[in-house]
Amino acid sequence: MRTRILIALFIFIWVSLLSRVYYLSVHSNRYYEQLSTENTLKTERIAPVRGEILDRNFRPLAINKLGFKIEVMPHLNTQKRLESLQDTLARIQKLLPMLDAEKMLKVYKQNDSHYNHREIAVADFISYEDILPVYSELNLLENVKISPAPMRYYPYQKIAAHIIGYTAKSNQQEIESDPVLKLTGIVGKSGLEKQYNTYLEGVPGERTVQMNALNEEISVLETHKPLENRNLVLSVDMRLQQYITKMMEGNAGAVIVMSLDGEILSAGSYPEYNPNTFVSGISAKKWNALINDLDMPFTNKIVNGLYPPGSTIKPSIGMIYLDSGISQWWYVTCSGTMELGNRNFRCWKSWGHGKTDLHKAIRESCDDYFYKGSLKVGIEKISDGLKNFGLGDKTGIDLPNEFIGTIPNRAWKRERYNEPWYIGETLNTSIGQGSVLVTPLQIAQNTALIASGRLPQPRLARMIDNNLTEPVYRDVLTAKQKADLPIIRRAMRQVCSHPKGTASSQITTKVAIAGKTGTAQVIGIPQATKKRIKEQDMAYYTRSHAWLTTYGPYRHPQYVVTALIEHGGHGASAAGDIVSGIYDKLVEFGYIKK
To answer: How far apart are CA 34 and CA 47, in angstroms?
Structure first.
């Protein structure tokens, strides 16, 4: 028994020894071999080049300028090595006087730490022209690395700035949510640059290299190229965009040219700003001037400008009246004013329009007709109808932060103000005043609905990854509403063609178009005022906004042109020449055939 125990103990000891020998000689060898490999092989991620943005004719709207960044080795910000760091930065400044050694030192200190082992960029972008004469000397500096670096550039400067947007340095929160930004440091901040940032920035590549004990590169073992240069082709025609920008010089507002399937040929918000000022960082002085400008050049008025639509919604209100059982031949006798309680609701024509049916009410923009019709229909049907026709809702355009607007009703007022709805507010809503607020793009989309019978989703991207984008529609009209559309269309044609149409005298294009003018009050008119002051005699920022929304050609509609001129007074007089010129350009550029 004792012998068996000794034998078992002997076997156990030898098995344990053999296991340990195996672990040390075989298993541990594999472990340390792996560590050795990790120490001698280094995998680097390769930053992708951001894709360009092009117009429909492949004109470059956002490109990458070639240049270089200057990086300094990390861990020089110590007591022993600080003098060497300062000397290096001073020598960089001597070769490139546009750089400031103190600012570079500040940037270095902000990014240097025990945990950072990557070179620190002290100059993000130096142009090819600037660096070429001193490249050799810079390259000889100890602790300095010169690397290729692209910088975003917008060759058309201000033109189309609000839809293109801009890029700038990414912040820490953005970097944490997008690993690509750790390599590029650049992110889309607004417009299409932001909307399509993930697509445009591409996918990083990888590079595996062999290193020696001095951390010097010996050879490149494997390279996977980045997925980059993902270009975005827009539906915008920069020839048309340039023309409209020239026509809008000195005006504030927005202009939209859109096909009936939602493809946008031009969309401008005015005044514009130069996005190039944001790429390398805007100064506090320029930023304050931009945001304090009363004409709001930094606001994208296409989707973020909220305005009373005025009479531009009267065709839609007319559709709602027809759908509610009011005949197209039902008429009112407009005397220029309507009493309701202790208030007078004025028509814009102080002496009145006389006998007025739906056709005349749209053609001559009679307020009294819509006042009295709203009393028969009520606010709920008006509100529901306008929302169904695309107002007070996002259009779905491929731009970030689109505003919704306001189409009021009883529930909205109760929730917002905890107050009851008054009948006078129904009257104001029926002529696009009171609490009604829309964006210019909503009016353009609504006009496309009347022209085509379908509500298109506006879009700016025409081609992504060499694939054409598809139109998207919403079929929001009932069979009866579609049957009523010709009535509204004929009245809108008369706006631009009938001798008494509100736009006929200002429309000069040979393209047969239909449309609706709008004058949206900025300030209320006191009841005690018997005679209105002429718009041109009012202080500029108290004048009404001027609208003109149209579609054409009338018989075979193809395009919508919507113009808003802030504080322009009457819609046709302020925007008639601009809209007429746009249709002429659509003919000239071949979009509309004669």
So the answer is: 27
Strand positions, DSSP E, 273-421: 332-334, 337-340, 343-346, 354-356
Residue 307 burial (10 A CB sphere; 0-12, 13-18, 19+): buried
pLDDT band at 532 (very low <50, low <70, confident <90, very high): low
Going by their DSSP bridges, the two strands 53-54 and 232-234 should be labelled as parallel
| Three-class DSSP category at 459 | strand
Cα gap 594→584, rounded to integer Å = 10
What is the mean predicted confidence (pLDDT) over 380-390?
Answer: 98
CA pair distance 437, 428, nearest whole angstrom = 12
Inter-residue contact 353 to 368 (CB < 8 Å): yes
Nearest to 305 by CA among 173, 461, 162, 205: 162
Nearest-angstrom CA–CA distance, 62 and 261: 26
**If residue 461 lies in a helix (H) or strand (E), which one and from where to where?**
strand 461-464
Over residues 215-268, the pLDDT tens digits come to: 566 777 778 888 887 999 999 999 999 999 999 999 999 999 999 999 999 999
Q: Distance between CA 571 and CA 4 in Å, rounded? A: 111
Please tell me the pTM assigned to this model: 0.88
User: Rounded to an integer, what distance in angstroms lies between the CA atom of residue 537 and that of residue 210?
Assistant: 78
124: helix, strand or coil: strand
How many other C-beta atoms are found inside a 10 Å radius of the C-beta of residue 303? 25
Report the half-sphere exposure of 444 (CA within 13 A, side-chain side).
Answer: 35
